[in-house]
Each structure stands twice: as structure tokens, then as C-alpha cells.
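User: Hi! Is it possible to get a structure for several chains at once, not just one? Here's what I have:
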Amino acid sequence: MEHQKHFFRAIFLLIVIIMVYIFARSLIFHPETWVPEAKEMIRSHTPVFGNLHGCNGCHSEVARTRAEGEHKGVSCEVCHAPLSTHAEGKKKIAPMVKNRSAKLCMRCHQQLRARPANFSQVVVANHLSENGIAFEPEVCIDCHMPHSPKL
Amino acid sequence: MLEPTYYSFPNDLHIHWSLMIVMYPYITGLVAGAFIVSSLYHVFNRKELFPVARFSLGASFAFLSVATFPLLNHLGHPLRGPLIMITPNFSSAMAGFGLIYAFYFLVVLLEIWLITRADIIRYARQSRGLKRLMYKLLALGVYDDSPEALEFDHKTTKVLAGIGIPAACLLHGYVGFLFGALKSNPWWSTPLMPIIFLFSAMVSGIAMIIILYQIIMVYKGITINSGCIQSMCRWLWLFMIFTVTLEMLEIITLAYEQAEEWEVISHLLTTFLPFSFLGIQVVFGSLIPFILLAIIVLMNPYLTDRLRNTLAFVSSFILLIQVWSMRWNVVIGGQIFSKSFRGFRDYQPQFLEKEGILASLIIFALPFIIMVIYEKIIPSFEGLKGREMITEIEPTVQYKGA
Amino acid sequence: MGLCRRDFLRWGLMGLAAGGMVTRSVYPIYGTEEEEPKRGLEYNPEDHYYGYLIDTYKCIGCGMCVQACKMENSVPEKFFRTWVERYLIADNGEDLVVDSPHGGISGFQPEVTKFNITKGFFVPKMCNHCQNTPCIQVCPVGASYMTEDGLVLVDFKHCIGCGYCVQACPYGSRFMNPYTHTADKCTWCYHRISRYMLPACVQACPVKARRFGDLKDPNDEVRRIIATERVGVLQPDLLTKPKCFYLGLDKEVV
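Assistant: Yes, the chains can be modeled jointly so their relative placement is included. Here is the combined structure:
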């Protein structure tokens, strides 16, 4: 044993390093709290979009029109903008965006081969020429009311 | 007009694992390969490898020291990198890295220490001042170089080298596993991947030692030991044949099975990797060194030393390129096609970007700088000076007590 | 109105309850003082286990879901937590076009192809929140985790940004966020559903092609459909057990 002193010294050094590592690790890191904290971080985000009830609070009239029309399944915020850009609590903070563009309508109603055949869709040029109307950027809402689009 | 072409998932537009992840298995492979060279001497008693046994351990250490650098440079949060070792998630192949790397580092350090301890003590006795302090610290303050102590060191070295071989295989096999165990990617997902990585690691390690040994010998003005070169070339040839066979087997199996992934992989090979895979890895990188090494191995008696050294140098150099291109083809090739198996993307490393060519060159230069410093502190070739025509050296010359 | 009213009522009212409770000071708009919470005050993750149902027969490819997701979660440009793919297929077994311009965030343009399209459809894609997930398995530091309610989420504070999970996900649902330098992915709007609101994409869908449900709730519509109808999942051969179920998957969809 007397000639293995150097080796035991190396082993001792190694054990000290491992002990320091374990000690420092338990002192500094608490991984068991990480996942709950991370979950809380994601949950604490404030929603940008509200929901229907948020809109109904002030706009019950329009909400009723919408609920009775063809667009009953379309959430208000889809065509307008997220609720949080418009209201904070019951207080209006900015005017709601009104996108009157035909492009918005065409996103859903432009005829595409990949769309379900029974979904109401038109080739815009044909639809307009059949009715003798010239194309304008906001042409759709001249005849169709967005909240209840059936003529 | 919509072309019936290539659709990539919208999140798949860039290659995320860049040049750094090519360098990472390459350097790790050099670690494992260099260690195998020294183990061939220490464990398997290939006495003809004596001239490089000690140096290859130092080289292994130098590459090992920087093996994590490419990975760290690639991380989105390099400062969080140590978390791999501090809070590993053991279901992850990458987390095993922390343990294996630390364990292997320990084995290499201990082995180097035990082998060079006699010299360290001698230097400590000969020098004074700060230098003496440094050597004293390296010797851990114990100046016991009695024959019994050295005999103990010698035996322990053998055990450590024996542990080191599976550890080296694990370290590099794990790198292959990292890719091979991803079921989402058909180019990577094969059980052959760790084995291919392992054999190509040995190829690159031996090739690197052949090159460095020759350069250092020429620089130091020592005659290159032809028996040593001859032996390394034989091992290199063997491992190279294994590597190329496995690499080809993988492709041929895929092609023959006509599995669904072959469609995307054949497109990958013919359109995106014809140069780096077929050109560099298969033809230039495998065929030429195969022939050159065959000449060395089969026509040994007819070769002059000079010719043998030149052939060995050239074929080693080509094999280093081959192994690098194999890493490139695996890492980058596996990301060229989108997970949709319909779309492809291309990757051109930039020179100056964070994970670009310059960064790779710097990282790759580091181990050589470490080697120079290492050789300054604990020279590996000192015992060879003046004894130029060494054909068979008894290890006892070096290890006094053994 | 049937289903959609039911959905809205249930989720909306729950939204009132929890939203009013959790963030009353900021968002009383989800509920007023007079309205009584319909459910217990606290959100208990162990009471829920969510599933997602995508009906490809209904999807019209408007891309409103992609847009809503971007706004709700501030998803970086050029990356997508959800996207919509369009498949156009000819009957000759060869011609096929798949596209998803900017993830479909602005909808799709009329298709002009060199071949005669015999079938076409849209497929919305997102994180499948697999039960046997490859991404959590490979994370070296455990920064990807599964919640009790079955969501696969990322711990942004401890993700080291190695990108291994991005490689491991067979669906391309994960990406490296260029601002946080961590992995990022769909959370099924965890901040919304834990307030008993619907995920933004589900709420934005005008045709109810996307539906979200609680598989632990015996009266849940999504649960009923998954149990009684022929639903598929993406790349079932990988055995990741996705919790996004599809109605009307085609063999060409990966």
C-alpha cells in the first residue's frame, strides 16, 4: 500500500470534486420547481382574443342578427380584430377594425377546387358579370350584409 | 401555375443543425480513434505501436477537450449547456453524453497521468520555481517513482485502457445513436448508424495519428518508425474496409427493400449529394485509399520507407476527408429533405456566420494548439530522440519500473 | 345552430367563470360581477384530458386559424404553430400538388395546375400533442414536458436550444424561435383553455372544421366522435399516439 499513495490521492481528489458537484447542484438547482413554473408562465399570458360573450356584452343587437343569419358560426373577431385591441373590460380603448374589403370575403368564398363542394363559393368575375356589376375593392358588401349575408 | 413539386412543411425551410453538428461527431470520432491506437498498444500489446502509444493518448485528450465546443456554439443558449450534465433527462440520447463524456474524460486523464507520472516526477526534480510548482501539482505532490509504484501504475494503466475501450466505443457509438435513434428521419434511423460512426471514428483517429506522427517526426528530425507506420496502415485498412462495407450495406439495403423512404433518399443521393456522397465519400475517399493502403499492406517488402510513408500520409489525408464528408452527408443530408418527404432545402455554410466555416476552423485548430502545449509540458517523443533505428522497443525502456 | 351553440355556451360560460376569476382586473369582459361562475373557481389540470378533432371535409382553407394563432401567441414571422396544407390530386396516381403559401395565413389562391384535378382538400396541421411523444423523449434537459391534462409544452427558461426535439418531431410542428432561441410549438393555447376558453384556432374556424374537447368529459362531442366514427391520425406507423384526430385523411397526407 505504501507505493500507491499517489493513486489514492488522485481518487481522493476525484471524490472531493464529485462531492462538490453534488453539493453545489443541490444548492443551486431545484429542477422540481421548473415544470410548475413553466406551466404558470404559459398560463399567465393574457388572451388576445376574447370570445362571443365578450362582444355580446355591448353589441347584443348585432350579435342577434349574426346568430340568426348564415354567418352564425363565424366568430366576430375573425373578420374584425382581436377583442383586446378594442376593449379593456367594458371600456372601449380603440375603434374596432372594420375590414370591408372583398378580399376578406374571398378568403372563404372564392371558388377553390380544394373547398368542399357544398360550401357557398363563387368565381368572383362570373358572379359579378352575371349580375352586371363592376368589380370594386369593397363590392361584396354592397349587396350582402356581412352580419347576415343572405340576400 | 402550381408545379407538382416539392412541398416542405412551413417550419422546415431552414437547416437547423449546421456545420457545427458536422464538426461535433468528427472531433468526437478523432477522440475515440486516437484512444484506440493507444489501447492497441496498452491492452492488446501491439508493441510496434509503441512510438505513438503515448502521443495518441495526448491527442485523444486534446480532441476530447474541445469535443463539446461545436455543440456549445450551436446551442441557442450556450450558457445553459451545462444543464445537460446537471439536470439530465435520462430518456434522451443526448443526456447520456454528459455521463459518458465525463467518465471518459476521467479515464483518459487518469491514464495519461499514470503513464507520464514518472516523467512528471523527473521534471519536478529537475526544474525549479513556478515550473517546479506546476509539475509538483501535476504529480499531486507525491514523488514516489519506486519500481513498485511504477509497476502498480503500469497494471492500473492496463485496467484503465481496458475500461477506456468500451468507454470510447460508447462515446462515439452514442453519437451515432443520437442520429440512428430518431424515427422521424429515414436517412438517420438505422441501427447501423452507431456502428458506422464507430468504425469511421477509428479510421479518422488512426489516420490523424499517422499524419501527426509523421509531421512531428520530420519536425523533430527523428526517423519515422516504419514498423509503426506499417502496423497503423494495416489497422487503418481493416477499419476502413469495415466502414465502407457498412456504409454501402445501408444504402444497398434501403435501395433493395424499396421501402417508402427510398424514394426521398434516392432523390437526395442523386440530386443533392452526388458530389459529397458519391464523389467524395465513395469514389475519392474510399476507393483511392483502399488501393493505396492495399499497396502498403500487401506489397510491404517491396516498399522503401519513403514511399510507404508518403502512401500512408496521402491515404490518411484522403480518409480524413472521407470521414468528414461522411459526417456531412449524414448530418446535413438528413436535413435536406423536409419531414413531409416531398420538399428539399439546400445548405451553404457561410464563412463568417456564428456557426460558419471560420468558427469551425477555429474550433478545429484548438486541439492542435492544446497538443503543442501538452507536448511542451509532458513531451511524448522524448525517449525516442537519439535512438533512431528503433525496430523493437521494450516498453521497460520507457516505463522504468515495469 | 345546435352543436356550435352548445360549444359556445359551454366554453363561453366556462370562460366567463374562469376568466372573470383569474384576470378580473384586466379582463372583466369575459364575465361581469353579476354572473356566477358555473364551475369551480380553480382550474384543476387533473380533471381534464384534451383531444383535438380536425374535419378535413369541412375545412375551406380560409387560413383564419393560422392568422388567429399568430396574433394570439405572437408567433414569429416565417414560423408556424399551425398551418393549412392544400392537396390537389389527379386520378392517374402520379400528379399531385401540395402547397401551403406562408402556412396559408392569407388563404389560398385559385389553383391552376397542369393536370386535371380529381380531388382536392385542405388539411390543417399543428402539434399533435402525442401521448408517446418523441420530442419529450429526446430533450436532454427535460425542458419539454407533458402536463397532467395531456399537453406537450416547452420550458422556455431552461430549454438549451439544441434543436434535438425539432429533429425528432415527425410532423414538423416544432421550430426554433429566432427571438427566444429556444424550441417553440403549439400550446393548444394553454393560457386560454386553463381559463375555460377555446384555443384561438378553434374559435377562429368559421366552419367548425377544428374542434377541441375534453376526453375526460363523458358528454363531450369530440370524445363521442372519436369513439364512434372512423378517425385517423398522422403517421400512425410511428406509434406516437397523437391526440389530434382527423376525419377524412387521404393516403397522400403525411
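The radius of gyration of chain B is 23 Å. Residues 17-181+350-382+394-402 of chain B form one domain.

User: Great, thank you!
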